[in-house]
Specification:
The complex is a heterotetramer, with two copies of chain A (322 residues) and two copies of chain B (362 residues). Chain A has 322 residues and is α/β, with parallel strands linked by helices. Chain A has helices at residues 2-15, 39-43, 55-67, 86-93, 96-99, 129-133, 146-158, 208-223, 240-250, 265-276, 301-304, 308-320, and strands spanning 19-23, 48-50, 71-75, 109-114, 139-141, 163-168, 192-195, 200-204, 227-231, 234-236, 253-260, 286-290. In chain A, helix 3 packs parallel to helix 4 (86-93), helix 8 (208-223) crosses helix 12 and helix 9 packs across helix 10 (265-276). Chain A is globular. Chain B has 362 residues and is of the alpha/beta class. In chain B, 43% of the residues lie in helices and 12% in strands. The longest helix of chain B is centred in the N-terminal third of the chain and has 26 residues, at 36-61. Chain B is globular, with a radius of gyration of 22 Å. The chains are: A alpha/beta (322), B alpha/beta (362). Chains in contact: A-B, A-C, A-D, B-C, B-D, C-D. The structure holds thiamine diphosphate (2 copies) and magnesium ion (2 copies). One thiamine diphosphate sits between chains B (96, 135-137, 165-168, 193, 195, 197-199, 260, 264) and C (24, 53, 55, 77, 81). One thiamine diphosphate sits between chains D (96, 135-137, 164-168, 193, 195, 197-199, 260, 264) and A (24, 53, 55, 77, 81).
Chain lengths: 322, 362, 322, 362
């Protein structure tokens, strides 16, 4: 997946003069995950900028650049260091268009690797997408495969409004899927149905998508339960129609995400299902999520992350509910 | 100190002033000061701003405007900045710079609309690249650095002027902006309008730094102080800094020493925290009177001109206030119209609900 | 209510040497809303500190003070300026105890006036409590009456863990209820049932509590609908048992909050009702909330805020659902 | 410059060094340097830290430790800080200061536990008031200011030492901490460990400021540079700054010039962005060898002592590594045990679920 990110960035740098990349260690070093490897060499130091160490600055610069016609794609080295950007994102990036009644806009992308499971140090395993999903005027996009990383990142960079683009680092090097650099963007604001099924709808995004798919396989094989699997992909704005349509057919739903449960994006999905789909639900909507505690250091982190077993068991319970 | 000690860096901070409090020339004046039309232009801007501020406060007091932050006493700083900038330069203001905005071409009615609670007030086309009011302190200073990078990137000989207050210099955003402007050599001038107060917090409680200009030293860039009540020195130094920026000479910090005459905003009561004596003493440095005295002594101004200007300013402000007061409020559902370039369909319901709500409320 | 806040602060300053107040304009000026009026005079400049203008600093100082035995009560002038504190709150305040395995702790309170409706300028009308409700290790408390402001603030200051204390400024000067300075704290982590009812449960907090109560009156009078009204008060941790117990009886629930709908705290409550109370629900759980757009400037702000009519209508619809 | 220009502030930044790269005394040494026991103590700390770092890297390479940030090449700075502090002072480190932590009494096994992924590593009782590792750059510098206020508030003659890197000086948090420390005259010393690199970003790209010590000028406080590879000057200036702080003299910024020999962490590959020549040249300034040469020449050290020390360090590290490797992991549900002082009942279910999960996984 990391190659797909690199390819998409290279494509847009080549296609659009107004695209510039900025962040810490993204130049000569090519980013700590190598997302930008080779890009400074290829496009120059004025296109791929190593910044001083200051995230508030990275976000603030991006807002200023975007308001004057550039398309900055900023990298925050890890989501654990994205919090200093919150003020600029919620107070300015997401409001500049509205504040100026459309006169100045903010076509910027804030990229950040997120999620746990790579035995990284403290603050390197955050998944707090819900904070951004609550901010009006923003888009929050999370790919879960190389193809979607490529297509959605192209779309994010071309989008006329600010996008927070979160990359599940746990799967950066998982699939070595070859992606064709055809410059074709995928649509934002829609969910992707990865697998059709009749008995239950599984909704997830990011790295958890993979445990969800594994659980779906296992459920099919071991229990003959046919799961429809949906990758939300664009967390905000949230395409509920796809999810509602599916749950109307299956009558059952389990939501899976790595973030802490309370006030996670899963809550919004479950709430809307209860609001708009109550009558079609055969069973309560369950959430399989990270716990409401601090993501532990590496010795215990695997216990924090939603596992295939947990998903499997929760789906079985939901199917058995009556 | 023992012999192994070595001095590795030395710095000086300079202060400049051309006109003393009484309007007397403190030294050789810059060339533009020889042209009375230029000085009269500066004077008109200051008088117009003062007229506008007084009216805006009156509007707020009578419930016709929201909370308002006046620039009374700081007219020279804002006029000097505005008259030093070229149209293609970019202004990045906080919330007290309307005096500069007017010179940039922004209609007074737009400023009133914004403080009157209507987003259309920041849609002005007269200064299309200028940034809107920015309320969160110092956050906009980073936008200035980003905008300056855009100019540098495109190789345009333009400069950015960021304006913020003494209080803003305590915030990390301000420092981070100076630091990156320095290391990237950005075409940006950072004007610190030191009006001695951040609401109730005096300058002395913001920082132990003896000057705010020396904040520039931390970023390795030039910093200087000017008398912010002397419009001639503000324009002169600002022009020099902008020229330097446009020519690739990099950023500058200019600390303008002035004083906030009025309450912080109409929601504030300055008598709670500062003395009448202090205010009185500061008002003796009146920037408007200062230039008038100089210009009069130099034979470039007289009572007739003064009266004519007062009337014209009043008439202009009257007309703009009427335009503001006669601007109908937007329909409620329009609060969704500039959220995104194209409103995602899922928000359509909420927009419709607002529309219905608006109808019912009529 | 503002007097209640002032009284509670004065009480704790008097009762506990380790309590210090810090913030912008809280000293001589007594705070822009007068919450701290007279306190610096009475307790001294070393107890009530006017800080330089820097919110990240205010939060970071508080974490350092708390780790060394003080009980800082910091004021953020408006919630619109709380975002620079997010990094310190989520990365340090809420994690210091866990990070040091209980060795260093963070008994601090971060106070901020929040919510709209007072014709204030841009950024002075935020209600983003959901962002903090998603952070493990934190408490988020929101009073909606002078008595609860007094009792809950005492509790927050005495609590051994970090508390974000949000004060609905729209009702600062609403009720002139006399409160007795008896030093009695109210319990955290529990909801307050303000009114018992049989037909439907109305759940709210903060300033919206008042429109909710007015709607309840109107519903009783005009439509003979008996509403149980719950003030959540402590948004995190969320006392669902009280809400679930009520909804089990009424079978119907409407949630009211001022914050934008998507990923607001209302979503978590609705999600848990759907998860744990599905079978007892006669009707979908509806949310009456702020819109998913930028809080408009004062000319339109009243249209943004949930009104009595909206609540009234939504309850009627929920009652008529079948 | 015209006659109205006035210099309102001037500043100098000094650099100090006692021992040159070859161990030769560059000038008069401070008194403590006359006591060979003191110098031997400093030397032992440096050698122990280097031994520990090499072992920790080896543990990580063999999958027995998580990502690790070594202090190879920076031993003099961390030893100088540690030996200058009094037990009652408070250390506020970032993540590379274990050399200082050991002197403070923190067991090596605790540092290994933390980087091995176990929160118990930061529970050490030997330095109960010291802050834990802080990963988000510069955020801890504000904690140091807050801690310093707590000491000042209680009138305790103690001081706080905040340690952060060259990269940290670009962050607003760092600046805001210096600024408030200045205006409140806090008993805090800010040590900037300038090891020339912030991962792959060289010092020259962090700031145009010629020195990082001059960041202090923006806060109106003292700032100076020292040779961070000369443990004698680090200890000497650190002691002076801490003493000043304890006595109410306020804060100081000390920039220690050193060099990061190893990759940023074990997850990094420095060969991608810096040359072997640069590294080689810097390694000629080896702080450990420098003190050994001086001490040997002064008759305070010899090969026998050297061998004995090497063995003792190895033995100590071996024992601590064993202690670390033999520490059982905590039960999964304990991740809730220090979330709050008392776990709110609503989280009981989640804790139980984890307990069951843990059982199943066994
Ligand atoms: C980040 C932030 N914190 C607090 C406020 C509230 N506030 C508005 S103006 C102000 C004082 C600003 O003082 P200064 O920077 O000197 O500018 P001045 O108002 O004097 O022009 C404060 C604290 C704010 N707008 N933004
Ligand atoms: C706020 C933040 N941003 C980014 C990072 C990732 N990161 C870890 S160390 C580092 C470089 C720090 O350099 P410096 O301050 O010089 O300290 P050094 O590692 O050289 O000791 C970066 C960018 C971080 N930990 N925190
Ligand atoms: Mg000011
Ligand atoms: Mg470094």
């Amino acid at each position: 997946m990391i190659e797909a990110v690199n390819t998409a960035l290279a494509h847009e740098l080549g296609a659009d003069e107004s695209v510039v990349l900025l962040g810490e260690d993204i130049g000569v070093n090519g980013g700590v995950f190598r997302a930008t490897v080779g890009l400074q060499e290829r496009f120059g130091e004025h296109r791929v900028l190593d910044t001083p160490l200051a995230e508030t600055m990275i976000a603030g610069l991006s807002v200023g650049m975007a308001a004057q016609g550039l398309r900055p794609v900023a990298e925050i080295q890890f989501m654990g260091f994205i919090y200093p950007t919150v003020d600029q994102i919620i107070s300015h990036a997401s409001r500049m268009r509205n504040r100026t009644h459309g006169r100045l806009t903010c076509a910027m992308v804030l990229r950040a690797p997120f999620g746990g499971g790579i035995r990284a140090p403290e603050h390197h395993s955050e998944s707090t997408e819900a904070m951004f999903a609550h901010m009006p005027g923003l888009r929050v996009v999370i790919p879960s495969s190389p193809a979607r990383a490529y297509g959605l990142l192209l779309a994010a960079i071309r989008d006329p409004d600010p996008v927070v683009f979160l990359e599940p680092k746990r799967i950066y090097r998982m699939q070595k899927q070859e992606i064709e650099d055809n410059g074709e963007a995928l649509p934002l604001d829609v969910c992707f149905t990865l697998r059709n099924g009749a008995d239950i709808t599984l909704v997830s995004w990011g790295a958890s998508m993979h445990e969800t798919l594994q659980a779906a396989d296992k459920l099919q094989e071991d229990a003959d339960i046919s799961c429809e699997v949906i990758d939300v992909a664009t967390i905000k704005p949230l395409d509920m129609s796809t999810i509602l349509e599916s749950v109307e057919r299956t009558g059952r739903c389990v939501i899976v995400h790595e973030a802490a449960r309370t006030c996670g994006v899963g809550a919004e999905i479950a709430a809307q299902l209860a609001e708009k789909g109550l009558l079609t639900l055969f069973a309560p909507v369950r959430r399989v999520t990270g716990y409401d505690t601090i993501m532990p250091l590496l010795r215990l982190e695997k216990h924090y992350l939603p596992g295939v077993d947990q998903i499997y068991r929760t789906v079985k319970e939901t199917m058995e509910f009556a | 100190m023992t012999s192994e000690t070595e001095t590795v860096a030395s710095f000086d901070i300079h202060y400049r002033q051309y006109l003393g409090p009484g309007g007397e020339a403190a030294g050789g004046l810059p060339d533009f000061a020889g042209d009375h039309d230029v000085l009269r232009g500066l004077y008109r801007s200051m008088v117009l701003t003062r007229t506008f501020d007084k009216r805006a406060i009156a509007l707020q007091r009578t419930g016709q405007l929201g909370t308002y932050a006046s620039s009374l006493g700081q007219e020279a700083t804002y006029a000097g900045i505005g008259h030093a900038m070229l149209p293609e330069d970019i202004l990045v203001p906080s919330y007290r710079e309307h005096g500069t905005c007017f010179i940039r071409g922004v209609p007074m009615s737009d400023i009133l609309l914004y403080w009157g609670g209507d987003e259309r007030g920041m849609a002005f086309e007269e200064a299309p690249h200028d940034f809107p009011v920015s309320v969160p302190i110092a956050t906009h200073v980073l936008h200035a650095a980003g905008a300056a990078y855009a100019l540098q990137y495109r190789g345009e000989p333009r400069a950015v002027a960021a304006v913020s207050g003494d209080g803003s210099t305590s915030k990390g955003d301000f420092y981070e902006a100076l630091n990156v402007a320095g290391v990237w050599n950005l075409p940006c001038v950072f004007v610190v309008v030191n009006n001695q107060w951040a609401i109730s917090v005096p300058r002395s409680k913001q920082s132990r730094a003896g000057t705010l200009a020396q904040k520039a030293i931390a970023a390795g860039i030039d910093g200087e102080q000017v008398d912010g009540n002397d419009v001639i020195v503000v324009k002169d130094r600002m022009e020099a800094a902008l020229k330097k920026a446009r020519e690739g000479g990099g950023p500058t910090v200019i600390e303008a020493l002035t004083y906030r005459w009025h309450d912080h905003t109409t929601a504030d009561d300055a008598t709670r925290y500062r003395s009448a004596e202090e205010l009185e003493a500061e008002q003796k440095k009146d920037p408007v009177e200062r230039l008038r005295r100089y210009l009069t002594a130099a034979g470039g101004w007289d009572d007739e001109r003064e009266q004519e200007l007062a009337q014209r300013c009043k008439a202009e402000v009257d007309a703009e206030v009427d335009r503001y007061l006669n601007t109908e409020a937007r329909a409620p559902e329009t609060m969704f119209d500039h959220l995104y370039e194209t409103l995602p369909s899922i928000y359509g319901d909420q927009r419709e609900e607002l529309k219905a709500k608006g109808k019912r409320d009529e």
